Amino acid sequence: MTALIEAEHLTRYYGKHCAVNDVSFALAKGEVLGFLGANGAGKTTTMQMLCGNLAPSAGQIKINGFDLLDQPKAAKLSLGYLPDTPPLYKELTVQEFLLYCARLHGIAKNSIPDSIKRAQERCGLTEVADRLIANLSKGFQQRIGIAQAILHNPEVIVLDEPTVGLDPIQIREIRALIRELGQDHGVILSTHRLTEVQESCSHVQIIDQGQLILNETVAGLNRQMDTGTLQVLTRLPSDINKLSAIPGVNSIESISANRIRIHHSVTANPAEHIAEQIIAAGWGLQELTPVKRSMEDIFISLTKEHREL
User: Mean pLDDT, the chain, as a whole number?
Assistant: First the structure.
């Protein structure tokens, strides 16, 4: 699979402060990469370097095969960017603003009407095309920001905190749009919202103090969330010795007379055998629940480990 973005050993200093330290990654078509980190971790600095708004102190960026420093115009033709605050002219209508953006992008004159129509349809803006941007909700303004980023149908779309300040319904709509865009493009989504990554992304990277501390698929991250623990509640006390003999059970922790926590091998989940044993013995199974670490737990644990190194 051809990489749409290849970032190698990116480093950026502000004076003596190293904001981004030796960051490398790649992005392919069909991937939505969640770039996750606490405020001040280096996310926005990295986004600005990827978009050519900020030169790296060291390292190389290729977009669709073009070096961003050596061939900036060719590289940026493949790039759509939504900064954390959408760059809108609110005294214009949606149609007028997108026409202006289409000209900035250098879209051929005879292709502009179709490009605007396609972007408006994809972003759900057709019905508000003739309304002033100033009179639209923040959710619609965010959609306009995304529309200007995809007008020229770029291979790579970079979105910096696209759902900040939106209500839950607007957030859901923008996440659905991001997933849809990810089918035909490569998308980088910078965020500090953990749920955003789970809902919208195929891959996740965590940056902390300017360094990448995780590069993983979301499926792989979900596997890490499985702690290999079951919480069990029975009507009568269970025989811990009998349950301990079940293959795959590593240890059992007694919480109360009728509640236990069973730690087991992640690869060999003995939940079915445990349920069968409890039912056959007549102990009265009332609850058997897998205990999972949240994404927040993983994020906090990784950043804590990194800062203690």
Answer: 91
Pairwise CA distance, residues 147 & 141, whole Å: 10
pLDDT tens for 245-275 read: 999 999 999 999 999 999 998 777 899 999 9
Range of the domain at 274: 226-295
Domain contains 84: no
Domain count of the chain? 3
| Alpha helices, H only, the chain | 43-50, 72-76, 94-104, 112-122, 138-150, 168-184, 194-200, 218-225, 240-244, 271-281, 295-308
CATH number for the domain spanning 165: value is: 3.40.50.300
User: Same domain for 74 and 159?
Assistant: yes
Region for residue 205 given its phi and psi (left: phi exceeds 0; alpha: psi -120 to 50; beta: otherwise): beta
Q: How many residues does the chain have?
A: 309
C-alpha dihedral, 183 to 188 to 192 to 195, nearest 10°: 10
Q: How confident is the model at residue 22 (pLDDT cuts 50, 70, 90)?
A: very high
